Amino acid sequence: MSEEEKLSQEEITTAREERRLELQQRFNPQRMKVVRKELFANLRDPAVTIRDGSITFNTACINGLEDVVWVNLMIDEEAGLLAVQECDENDKHALRWCIVKPDKRKSRKMTCPGFTDLLYSTMNWDKNCRYKILGYQIEFEGKPLYVFDLSAYKIFQEKPKKGEEGEDVQVEMPVDRKGYFPEDIANTFGVPVEAHKQEMEVTELNGLVSIGALTSPGRVKQE
User: Fold this and answer.
1) Range of the domain at 185
2) In the structure, what pLDDT confidence band is assigned to residue 36 with cuts at 50, 70 and 90?
3) 186: CB partners within 8 A, 6+ apart
């Protein structure tokens, strides 16, 4: 390498170091936000789709809890969290969340109008829509389970049911029925770094109660 080439390389290295130091000085974690995963394509991520009358966990979710067929659904109304964990088939509130075949398991539409009526009312959701929510696997009491943040959803307009084609559905949505996010997600990149840290520090699921018995012991409003 010639002296001229060496000098050029040194200049490049020096310039890069100066740039690195400049960026280090400009970097302020107090102003940074963790970009929401919901804003990215997530077809292969664990998710639940909630419709008026049913819920369905996708294949990624089913595969994430290997060999699990029977589950308990749990909800924390105050925190707006839905969770699913493995349970014994003979559990009083056991629910079958998948279809088991000799070579594979697949997702299953779980019909539950009583549950979705209450959930839509609690969350103030529109029954003309379905809601897709990403799931995050955590560990509780040594076992894996999924937790879904009911406030971080993607919303889709449902096709009219039979006999409803001529009705005027008052829903402010794109006519192509593409999903969209609530304003607090769609109009922001994400959450502040400190807030993200606090979200990830959850170690216990206080307040979760079995959906099969919304009046079970837990953080439930008392009359």
Assistant:
1) 30-211
2) confident
3) 180
Q: Strands 95-96 and 190-192: what pairing?
A: unpaired
| Unique residue bearing structure tokens 């000098």 | 7
Answer whether residue 5 is part of any domain.
Answer: no
Instruction: Give yes or no for a contact between 83 and 150, defined as CB atoms under 8 angstroms apart.
Output: no
Domain count, the chain: 1
Please spell the DSSP secondary structure of 34-49, one letter per residue: EEPGGGS--TTS-EEE
Question: Per-residue confidence at 161, pLDDT binned at 50, 70, 90?
Answer: low
Domain membership of residue 217 (yes or no) is no
What is the rounded CA–CA span in Å between residue 109 and residue 53?
10
Residue 129 near residue 102, CB atoms below 8 Å:
no
φ/ψ of residue 132, rounded to 5: -105, 130
- pTM above 0.85? no
In a domain, 147, yes or no: yes
Residue where the block lists tokens 């809890």: 65
* Residue corresponding to tokens 């991520």: 45
